[in-house]
Specification:
By secondary structure, the protein is of the alpha/beta class. It has helices spanning 9-19, 42-49, 64-77, 88-99, 114-125, 138-144, 167-177, 189-192, 238-241, 248-260, 267-277, 280-300, 318-324, 342-348, 377-383, 400-409; strands at 81-85, 105-109, 129-133, 149-155, 180-184, 202-206, 220-224, 304-308, 331-336, 353-354, 364-367, 391-394. The strands form 2 sheets. The chain has a 7-stranded mixed β-sheet with strand order 1-7-6-5-4-2-3, with helices on both faces. It has a 5-stranded mixed β-sheet with strand order 8-9-12-11-10, covered by helices on one side. The radius of gyration is 22 Å and the shape is globular. The protein binds pyridoxal-5'-phosphate.
Length: 413
C-alpha cells in the first residue's frame, strides 16, 4: 500500500501494521515478549542508547508490539507521537511525574473521573496547586490561570454527569496564553472527536475503555498532537532540550514516566487493545445509537426524573456536541422518581450488568454515589452535580430493542 493516499479511519487502523515491517507475513503485529533486545554490533547498541538510531533497549522504555499500537493511536488522533502506559491512570500520572514541579499550578475541570480527582488530591499535597473549575465555563478557567499555571486539564464528556467542557474556547485561551492544554478523550474516543482540532497539546486516552472495547485489557495513552511548543515549556530538563523542540515533551515523558517510573504497557495487553481498536468506529456507531435510543425512552417516561445524555436536545451542552462531536457518546446517567429504589431497579434489569467499567461491549450499570464516588463524600458529590440516586450506564453494542426493552421492563414494578 502506498502511503500517499490518505485512507479513512478504519482502513488506516486495519492496514497500519502491514505498512510497517511485515514479520513472517503476519497480518497482526506479533506479540514480542522479550524484555531485552540484543545487537550483533556493540557499537550499534551504544548508538541506540544514545538515541542516534532507532531501536529498542529494554521493555520498560519500549517494545515493538506496544510501539505498533502507539503508531495506530497517533493515526487515530492525528497526532505526531504516542506513548502507551499500563493503564489510563498511569498515563495521567505521567503528566504529574514528568511535567510538573512543586510550586506549579494546574487548572482542572472539577467534573472528573473519580480516580483522577483523587490523583489531583495527591498532587496537591506534594506541592502542585490544583485549581478546580467548572470547565463548561471558559471564564472560570481564565480566572483561575496564574503565572505558575503549567497546564489546563479537562475531560470531553465527564463521567458520570456528562458535562461537556467548553473545549474550543478553552483551547483558544490556552493557545493565546501558551499553556499546555491536556484533554482526556476517553469518553469521546478519537472516532467521535479529535482534541487536536481544538488545539489540545496532549491527549489522554484510557485504552481500557472503548478503544480496546472488549473489557479484557488495561491500558492508557498520551498523544502529542504537535500543537504545543515544548521549547517554551519551563519544566523540560537540559538533556531533553538537546532534542528538536517538537520531540522534547515526549522524550521527557518516556524517560521520566516509562523508564524511571515504570508505568509500561505489557505486549499481550497491547495486542488485545490493538485487535479491539480495529472495530472502534463500528462499535461506537452502534453504541452511540443505542445510547440515544435509551436516553430518549428514559426521558419520555415519567418514572424517570432526570436523564443526562449529551446527545439529547435537553442537555445544556448539546450545542457543543453538535459542533464538535460525531455523536453524543456511549455514556448516560439518570435518576429515578423518588419512590423507586435504584437498587431494586438495577436488580430488575436482565441484560445490563451491575459492574464498574466503561466502554465495554456489554451494557454496564452502577449506582454512582454508593460505589465509584463513595469515597469522596456527599459534599464533593453535590459539587459535581451527582445525585445520591444517580445511575450511570455505559451503553454496549446489544441489539437496540433488547437493550431499550430491558430498561423499560425494569421500570414496571
Ligand atoms: C477509566 C478512565 C480513566 C482511567 O483509565 P484506566 O485505564 O481505568 O486506568 C481515565 N479517564 C477517564 C475519563 C476514564 O473513564
Amino acid at each position: 500500500m502506498s502511503d500517499k493516499k490518505s485512507y479513512g479511519f478504519t482502513t488506516t487502523i486495519l492496514h497500519n501494521d502491514r505498512r510497517k515491517t511485515i514479520e513472517q507475513g503476519s497480518l497482526h503485529k506479533p506479540v514480542h515478549t522479550s524484555v531485552a533486545f540484543g545487537y550483533a554490533d556493540a557499537r550499534q547498541l551504544a548508538s541506540v542508547f544514545q538515541g542516534k538510531e532507532p531501536g529498542f533497549r529494554y521493555g520498560r522504555q519500549g517494545n515493538p508490539t506496544v510501539s505498533a499500537l502507539e503508531d495506530k493511536i497517533s493515526k487515530m488522533e492525528d497526532g505526531v507521537a504516542t506513548l502507551c502506559f499500563g493503564t489510563g491512570m498511569a498515563a495521567i500520572g505521567a503528566l504529574f511525574q514528568a511535567l510538573l514541579r512543586a510550586g506549579d499550578q494546574i487548572v482542572s475541570s472539577s467534573f472528573l473521573f473519580g480516580n483522577t480527582n483523587s490523583l489531583w488530591q495527591t498532587v496537591a499535597v506534594q506541592g502542585v496547586d490544583v485549581a478546580f473549575v467548572d470547565a463548561t465555563d471558559v471564564a472560570q478557567v481564565e480566572a483561575a490561570i496564574t503565572d505558575s499555571t503549567r497546564m489546563v486539564f479537562v475531560e470531553t464528556i465527564a463521567n458520570p454527569r456528562t458535562q461537556v467542557a467548553d473545549l474550543a474556547r478553552i483551547g483558544e485561551l490556552c493557545r493565546a496564553r501558551g499553556i499546555l492544554y491536556v484533554v482526556d478523550n476517553t469518553m469521546t474516543t478519537p472516532w467521535l472527536f479529535r482534541p487536536r482540532d481544538v488545539h489540545a497539546g496532549l491527549v489522554v486516552n484510557s485504552l481500557t475503555k472503548s478503544i480496546g472495547g472488549h473489557g479484557i485489557a488495561l491500558g492508557g495513552a498520551l498523544t502529542d498532537t504537535g500543537r504545543f511548543d515544548w521549547s517554551a515549556y519551563p519544566n523540560i530538563a537540559q538533556n531533553f532540550r538537546k532534542q528538536a523542540s517538537a520531540a522534547q515533551g515526549m522524550a521527557q515523558l518516556r524517560a521520566k514516566a516509562l523508564r524511571d517510573f515504570g508505568a509500561a504497557l505489557g505486549p499481550e495487553a497491547a495486542h488485545h487493545i490493538a485487535v479491539g481498536a480495529e472495530t472502534l468506529a463500528l462499535r461506537m456507531e452502534r453504541t452511540c445509537a443505542n445510547a440515544l435510543a435509551l436516553a430518549t425512552m428514559l426521558e419520555a417516561d415519567d418514572r424517570v426524573s432526570a436523564v443526562h445524555y449529551p446527545g439529547l436536545a435537553s442537555h445544556p451542552q448539546n450545542g457543543i456536541v453538535k459542533d464538535l462531536f460525531r455523536s453524543g457518546g456511549s455514556l448516560l446517567s439518570f435518576e429515578l422518581r423518588e419512590d423507586i429504589d435504584p437498587f431494586d431497579y438495577l436488580n430488575r434489569l436482565k441484560l445490563a450488568i451491575p459492574a464498574s467499567n466503561l466502554g465495554d461491549n456489554r451494557t454496564l450499570v452502577i449506582p454512582v454515589a454508593h460505589t465509584i464516588f463513595f469515597e469522596m463524600g456527599a459534599e464533593r458529590r453535590a459539587s459535581m452535580g451527582i445525585a445520591e440516586g444517580l445511575i450511570r450506564v455505559s451503553v454496549g453494542i446489544e441489539d437496540t430493542d433488547d437493550l431499550v426493552g430491558d430498561f423499560r421492563q425494569a421500570l414496571d414494578v
